[in-house]
Design goal:
The protein is of the alpha/beta class. Helix content is 38%, strand content 23%. A hairpin with a 3-residue loop joins strand 1 (36-48) and strand 2.
Length: 388
Amino acid sequence: MTAMTAGSELPALPVLGVSDFVALVNQTMEYVFPAVVVMGELANFRISKGKWLYFDLKDDKDGGASVRCFGTVYMLPGPLEDGMLLEVRAAPRLHPQFGFSLNVQTLRPVGAGAIRKAVQLLEAKLAAEGLFDPDRKRPLPYPPARIGLVTSGESAAYADFVKVVSARWRGLEIELADVQVQGERAPGQIIAAVRWFNALADPPDVLVVIRGGGSADDLQAFSTEAVVRAVAASRTPTMAAIGHEVDVSLAELAADRRASTPSNAAELLVPDRREILAQLASLRQQLADELYGRIDGMRQELGKFAEGSFDLVSSRLDRERTALADRRQLAEVLNPALALARGFAVIRGADGKVIRRAAQVQENAIVRISITDAELSARIEVIKAVKN
């Protein structure tokens, strides 16, 4: 309660020490403005001891207001430069020694120009580290059995992705990490989802980060340094599809593979089963045609072989018939019966052996004489011996 002093219209006020005054102001601001969002142009940006962050926010017009800001480097979305337009969420505080400032909680570039410049600075920094090098890219399993999906479960990107995957391939398991894909909380949730999938004892075969189209401000979360590094550090192979085909986020450059849209990501991850079935049917027909062709070829070769074998056997039979006829003719020529019919006789001794020379028989010996129609016996009488 205040009291009026004599001769004055002003109320009597308590006298505060400086520290009490500072505490009272901070208590009042904390009650009335626990946090504020201030937009302004970045000025006097500096980092102290690699940890502390100091800068001013000022109006973008000459003679405008300026306010000091204080924070840590861990809240930086990436490299910044004076002149960028920033949106800062902070707690207003009156420091006992350094005066009034905004204690920064989050900050991000806003406006197409500032966002573009911030992305360019971060891209140059990470490219110099080799984060986007093609040699770092890993092949993705095709098709994967399990997909870890990082996106908003209520987004059109999620619906399109699931629809295209389901239409093209069957039997896949899609596990969703439902996150915000724009705004202050988006980077932290995306990073947490990527790390959660990687920490699983049985992680998915591929990690897919997707978001539908939007403005540069809407897509900004996917070009913040912490998100890009999280994607690059994933031990699970990654694919990213952010925005439309013309939009390229830094998370896409850091991923193992980029897709132009969420639907295109689904098309790149799995084959079209209808095309596979058509290819299998075509392959089956090709194999059948080749098999039938080989059977026809073998049938023709077998026919030629049989024809050749028949000719060979026929030729061999003809030769054998000719040889048999020659032998028959020779046998007829050598047939003793024919010789006997022509007036010849065969003389055998008592032992049945044919006598060809006179020395084989003695005079007065009894011999048998075979003629064409009888067997005769005779006694030998040597009339004349002829010397050969």
